[in-house]
Structure formats: structure tokens, C-alpha cells
Amino acid sequence: MNWPTITDRIRAARRQPQAEPGLRQRLRTWRRRLGVFLAVLGPGLITSNVDNDAGGIATYSQAGAQFGYALLWTLLPLTLLLYIGEEMCARMGVATGKGLSDLIREEFGFRSTFFVMLAGLLVDLGNTIAEFAGVAAGAGVFGVSKYIAVPLAALLVWVLVVRGTYSRVEKVFLAACAFYVAYVLSALFAKPDWTTAVHQTLVPSFHFTTPYLVMLIGLVGTTVAPWQFFYLQAGEVEKRIGPRQYRHARTDVLLGSITSMAVVFFIIVCTAATLHVAGITNITNAGQAAMALKPLAGRWAAGLFAFGLLNASLFSASVLPLSTAHVICEGLGFEAGIDQKVSEAPIFYGLYTGLIVVGAGIILIPKAPLFKILLLSQVANGVWLPVVLIFILLLINRKDLMGELTNGPVFNFIAWTTSVVMVIVTLIWIYLSVVQPGASPGLLLLP
Amino acid sequence: MLRATEILEAHTYDVRGNFVGRVREMFIEPAEQANRISRLLLARGRFQPLVARWDQIAFVAPGTVRLAADERALVPFAPNEAWLAVRKDLLDQQIIDTHGRKVVRVNDIGLAEIRTNGGLELRVTQVDVGLPGAVGRLLHGLAPTDAVRRLQAKLPPRVIPWEFVNLIEPDPLRRVKLRLTGHRLARLHPADLADIMEELSPGEREGIIASLDKQTAAGVISELDRRLQTQVLEKLTPERAADILEEMPPDEAAHLLARLSPETSEELLDELSREDARDVTHLLQFGEGTAGWMMNTDFVFVGEDASRLEVMNWIRSRDIPTDQLDTVVLIDAHAIFAGVVPIGRLLLAADERAMRELRSEPLLSTTSGTGERDIFELFDKYNLRSLAVVDEDDRPIGVITVDDVVGRLRHKL
């Protein structure tokens, strides 16, 4: 086993390319970097897009139908807001290698964790119901009965996760992200007034009327949902993204925030160009928006719109119960993760299955008080959000946890201001939801 | 049995019955005694907190502690890194259950009272990782202790005896002060330990690798998930990483180095001993998915004319790892590949038989550039356990064993 000559040859060969920094070499480095980025890509993109769920689409459609292009300016600040929240969680996942609920448990004890988790379970159950309501509405546009569509969707979602590994599931989710392009197409079919749309996006305009304010609050509320912070952080941890790839993780989150808000832009533009122009200013759910599009923008626009809704609802219906099961098991110390077998993590899979079965089941009850359930879940969502945000801010400023990656003063200022504003906005929203439930746009989810 | 949560926040009275404070924290001093609660930290609102030593405790019940000493005998509190804090370091934290071989989260801690002459010692006996502990934490202070205990008794227990508890402490200095060693972990199978490490955070993983000796560390790192292998290795000092790499078979070391950044792998190669560096660099020239990439360069080869007895004596005289003994490769007088002898046949043969007569037919070998698909086919067709790899002059340079094939196949699934 003596090969002294070979070794020297190899060493020489390995060093050689560094002598000539030609195009090929640079191309290779570039390809390597792209490879690293693609490996990190995923959690941010998925989390942000999942946010455009059934409830979100209903709210955005309504925003376009009721106010035309007037609310488009909110999208830029909302993108920033989404990015700031998600970036903090991504950073925490990268720096600590632990999920958000793990950190809450370790730093704030069992009881706080338990109540945060309990609230999370209730809120997410409500949201899951909303997603299946979205499936029912989307399928309704294509003439498929909800009694067929919803059980089918539930089964599909369940099988996807229980039978899949993280990397496979993630690929399906990334593909689902791509289907959001349906909204871009359906906006193109709607032939909107692009000059006005772009102008309204860049130049803010305020109207101090109650419906306008309510819609504004609704937009903020549906854009930043607390569960997505947990999901994102868990995703970063499960992908084992370390501080070295943090730059890429941040780009992933930024890309996610921008694409998801771009989709929102097209949804609003689509309904603004059609429903608002035609004087249809009040829709009660996203399926109805798709129906109303048919005579105005044609079969294709309506079909694509409904397809987008179906895709979004299915997508969120698989992510939400998954995220919830993850969060609860992590926090309370049960085995969790889709890479585990069912027998290894019974509570994880039990929660996951339970959420889907109950969420889909309630939609199928002929006379269920859906409106009340959704109202309650939205209120709970609102109460939960500031709590989670404050936990995040307390944790991310801990040097012993975050090391070099704590918030800088600028980021802290923006994040704390955002949190306080969000708390106030949410309180107003809850107040309005309770006092005049009909006026709150986040609640237009009835199938 | 008492629970830590029942004693935390307990009202504490001194020997004259005066209220001293509430139990804010309990400390174990591993340097003195591995499981004794040796200090109680007593918080007194805005006054300076005091510390009671274990021999000053006279009586303990849920919510109440009585001391055998006067308040004036207690000393003010000064933080000490060598004390293990029950609330801060144990409750709600993750630990490794070295018996059940997994990572669990601590819900509560079980304490036993041991009466000594006149005094009382609290010893940690187990950690509670199940529902009783969780319920206790949730209801503590909200419901009477008796009611909570009755409820807990009805729930299925899940406890880990203290001797199987392995704490995870990322800070190396603190680990030394707390007398945390990797002895218990080193007794686990490397694959189990690797599974455990995959559940932990990067800092905790580093802590565990640091507490292991280099052989165990090498075994564990080879079993880790690929992305973690590079992450763990890059965090080590080049010297330590090289020490660990030297303990691995050359093929695994080469695969690992190939995945590191060019600068890091160059640095590590310089740290490796000359012989190991040579083996590893040799392997690095082969592309992933070829026979050269899969093969191991540590293998046993003997002349084809040697007798069975000579070979057996030669093998016995050397310290050859048994996993290299699956196959003995034969070479002729010109060091040309002359076949392989499976160990089973070597075992049964008579002493005087020449190795040439024992070799398997047909004479199979492959070249280093052969694609892995062809290798899989060969293994499948001839039911091979190992396959020799030869260079352009037909000299053996390595052996692919069935575990290399299984590894590659599983990676492709």
C-alpha cells in the first residue's frame, strides 16, 4: 500500500486550478454558491406563501372589490413587516438550532408554554376549518360538491405528510408555491389599469372612513399570522441550517415575503379591475369572487382564480396542522417531526390527524355554526399574535442564546415598534370583530 | 418521594421558627456528591439571598422547609459555576436518557429523603419526563398538594433513574466544573448516539463531541447525517478534527473531506499523519459514484503461494480490525491481482492448503473508474460480500464491501 508518487500528483493537481482564475473556475464557484442557496431555500418561501390562505385570499379579494386599487400602497409596508417577523425567527432557528416552542419552554417554563400551546391549538384548529372551507368554496366553483371535495382533500393532505419525508414534502410544497402564478394569469385576463395600479402601490392614500380602516386592519391581521413564526423556525431547524448558511436563509425569507406579497398584489388588482369596476363591492367569500369574475373577465380568469384558491387552501391545510402538531410536541416534550415513524411519535401524528379530521369534519356538518367558530378563531389569533411577538423579541435579544446574532438597535427599534403597533391594531381589530362582526373582512370565509 | 417543584418556593424557617425566605433554587455539587442537594438558595424579597447547606436542613415537606440552624449561621449567596442548579439547568431542559437512548425533556425531579444522624439529606433519584410531572407543573400552587399527588398517581409514570441521566452542557469549562464526562455516552452504540445528536442544537452537539474520546467521536461522526458531519467537523479545531479523521476508515474520511470547503479540507489534510493523508488524498481523486470513491484502501493482501497456516499466523500476529477481514486479497509475485479468499473458506480449509486453491471463482475485480451502477449489478449477480478494485496495471488498490454498497443504495432511495 505504497503510492507516494500518486499523492504528490494529486496534491499538485488539486492546487493547479487556483493558479488560473479563469471563467470556468468562476462559473464553478458560482454554481457551488447557487447549489448552497438552493439547498437552504424552502422554509421562508413556503411559510410566506402559505400565508396567502383561504382567509387571506378572501380578504384580499374583498379589498380589491370594495376599494379598487386604493389599498395597494399597504403592500410595501406589509412586506417589510412580514420580513422582519420571519427573519427574526429564521435567525433564531439558525443561531440556536432549536424551535421557537423549545426555546419558550426552556426559558419561560412549563406553564407559560402550556398556555401558549393551548391557545395555538385552538387558533390553528379555527384556521384549519377555514382552509377546508376554502377547499369547499374552490371546488364549488368547478361544480364539485363539498361532500366529495373536502374528505378527498383531507385524505390527500394527511397521506402527503404521514407517508412522506421532510425533503419530499418540501418539494410538494415548493411546487404548490409555484401554482400561485394562477393569480398572476387571472389578473392578466382581467385587463387591469396597470398605470393606476402601480401609482397606487407607490403613493399612499388615506381615507378616514370606518370600512376603510377595518379593511386596513384586516389586511395586517391576515398577513402576519403567529403560527407561521413557529413553522418557519421549525423548518430552519429541521433543515439543519447553520450560521454559515444564514445569509442564504435570510435571502430565502426575503424572497418568500416578496413573492407572497406580489401574489397579493395580483389578487387585489384582479378583483379591483373587475368586481370593483362593475360595482360588485361586497363579496362574502373567495369562491363567490371567482364566480363573479366569470361574466366580467371570462371563464379562464374565473377558473384560474378558483384553482388558485383550491391550491392555497390545500397547501395551507397541510402546513397548518403540521406546524401545530410540531409546535405543541416540541414545547411539551413529545417526539415530533415528519422524519419520525408513526410509532415513534404517536402524539405528533395523533394531533396532526385530529386537526385534519375535526377541521374537515366541521365543514361537512350541514348546519354547523361556522361563522361563530371562525369569529372565535380570528379573535384568538389576534390575542395570540402579540404574545408570540413579545416572546420572540425577549428571546432574540438574549446574548447567551443568540451570540453574535442578537437584534441590532435599528432592527430592535423597528421590531418593537411593529409589535406595539400590531398589538394596538389587533386590539382594534378584535374590538371591531366583536362589536360589528359583519364589517370585519377577515371573517368572510363562509363556504 | 418528594418532587423538586414541591420544594421550590417552599417557605423556610430557621431553628427558632423564624421565617427566613423561600427556596428559589436547589444546587447539587457534583464534585462532592453526584446526587445530593447540597445547597438551598433562599430568596428574601429585597434582602440579600442566603444559602443553606445540606447539613443545616432538618425537615422538608411540600411547601415547607425547616432548618437546623439559626438564620445568622447562613451565608450570603455567591454564584458558583460548579454547582448544578436544579431549576435552571435541569427543569424544562433536554437531557440524554442513556438507558432508553434518546433525548427527553425534564418535567420534574424526584427526590428521596435520607435521614442521617439528626439531619436529613435530599438525594435526586430520578427525573420525571412523563405526564405526572407535566400535570404537577401545571397545577402546582393552584390545587392542594394532596389532590395533585392523587391525580399524579393515576397517570402512567415515565421516569429516568438519575444514574442514566446525561446532562447536555455546551460550555466546555462548565462541563469540567460539573464533572460531566462522556463515559456513559461512549457506552452507547455510535449509531444510537448519532441519532441522539441529530435531535440536539449545534452547540449541544459540539459539547457532546468534545466530551467523547477520539475513537468514539469518529464512530459517531461517521454515523451522522451528511450535513451534520460537515457542520460538526468544521466547528472543531483542525488538530482535534484530524485526530478524529485518523480514527476513521480512509474511505469515510475521504468522503467527509470531499464535502468540506476546499480550504478546510486542505487544512485538515496538513494536520493528518503522512500515511493517513496519503491514503485519503489518494481516495479524493476519484469522483463520487465510482468504485474508487466507494472502496476502502485498508485491506488485507497476501501472496497467492502462501499456505493457509502461514496466512493465519501472519494475521494473528497483527492487530488487524476484524471488519477488514471479510476477504483476503491475493497477489502474485508481480503484485498483480490474483483473486480473493472469503474468510469462511479460510476458516474451514486445512493448514497446508495454498491460498491460490481457496480463491473464489470467477476471478472478479473492477477498476477505480467503474460507475456505481455496474458495481451494484456485480454485487447482486454474484452475491458478493466484497469486491477488489485494481489500478491500470491490475494491482489491487482497495476493496469495496457490501456495507459500502448498502450505504450508497440507501442514499439513492
Overview of this structure, please?
The complex is a heterodimer of chains A (447) and B (413). By secondary structure, chain A is mainly α. Chain A has one domain (44-443): Up-down Bundle (Amino acid/polyamine transporter I). Chain A is 78% helix and 0% strand. Chain A has helices at 4-19, 23-40, 43-50, 54-67, 75-96, 100-141, 146-162, 166-178, 181-189, 194-202, 210-223, 227-238, 246-278, 286-297, 299-332, 346-364, 370-396, 399-402, 409-435. In chain A, helix 5 (75-96) crosses helix 17 (370-396), helix 6 packs across helix 12 (227-238) and helix 17 runs antiparallel to helix 19. Chain A starts with a helix and ends in a 12-residue tail after the last helix. Chain B is of the alpha+beta class and 413 residues long. Chain B folds into three domains: 2-160, SH3 type barrels, CATH 2.30.30.240; 181-285, MgtE N-terminal domain-like (MgtE N-terminal fold); 300-412, CBS-domain (Roll), CATH 3.10.580. In chain B, helix 11 (238-246) packs across helix 13 (262-271). Chain B is elongated and about 95 Å long. The two termini of chain B are 50 Å apart. The mean pLDDT of chain B is 85. Classes of the chains: A mainly alpha (447), B alpha+beta (413).
Describe the structure concisely for a colleague.
The complex is a heterodimer of chains A (447) and B (413). With 447 residues, chain A is an all-alpha fold.
